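User: structure tokens for this one?
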Amino acid sequence: MTQDPGQPDGGQVPGNGQYGGYGQYPGYGQYPGYGQYGGYGQYPGYGQYPGYGRPAAPKPGIIPLRPLNAGEILDGAFTAMRWNPKAILVTSAVVAALSGVLSTAVSLSLRHAVFTDVKLPSTDSSSGQVTITGSQVMGFAGLALALVGVTLVFTFLSRTILTGVITVAVGQGVLGRKETLGASWRATRSRLGPLFGVVFLSVLFIGLGWALTVGLLVLIAVLLGAFTHLLPLGVLIAVVGGITATVFAVIFTIRWSLAIPVVMLERRSPLASLRRSWQLVRRSSWRVFGITLLIEIVVMIASGIIQAPFALAGGGSVFSAAAAHQSVTGTVIAAIGGIIASTLTAPLSAGSVVLLYADLRMRREGMDITLQAAAASAGSAGTVGQPGGQNPDPW
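Assistant:
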């Protein structure tokens, strides 16, 4: 700073003083460079608010209302069971108990049929071999098919209903609504037709399509195998074709994995739900596949850990609870372990699918804004929203 001797008040002139140069402004002073505002100051960059200046997403229920990562999806599924155990765990326990009792009864019935009802004729003295008549084999096979068929049908129906109830409860838990068991069941009952339809169509298309493709490939291999020099070609076609068919089956399974949340929460028809699921997953197939695989691994490990003590207590194996040498008591003990494991792991699988569906909608369609508005609506706790009602369902 310099002074002008010609000025009576000793005024200050530009230089290195207050004005210009490196003074207060406009250079490196308070503003606009690296001062208090802008840059790395309080806002809007890396300041007071978390997440690069954005406030934390609201979390009215089991997950934060923003796009999720794999860990948050799994954590949300666990949280859902603690959040609403009556609607989720009670339903899961009932379904697991009924399925377990039926499966155990079928297993014991078949064992009784083998060791009691099948009467072996006396040993042939000339050959020293025991023979079983064809009528005995056919009778046992018919009994086994009937019992196993009934078990599979019941398991399919009960698991589908359970998935619907859990989907409704988790969907409302995202919004912070603790759904009652009765309300969840009523919401599921009104969608039983489309729910069964979408599960049946997906199993039919994927399972039947894979079976027909593999059967055709095996037939081609057999026909080519009739000619010795074409046998390697037939084997190659069967192997490559089988792998290809399996890959396409996995692709369709992943693309249609969100059909149940769509049919329950968006209330669409079965075919429309399959198309909607395909569209949601289309650009995120690898991510959905990875998260789904991770969930299945976690469920498998958790189920094995829960069942292991019961399998050992029942005289079975850690790797096979239903060992052939188990007694009736051991079979029952192992079945109890299976019921407990299914009660705890079934909601984890179904809930993770619902949260994965919510994550994709928040990523693709900005659904997080809609969910935040719905969660903040007054008087929305504990109700199932209906379109046009006081608390419309945002899904």
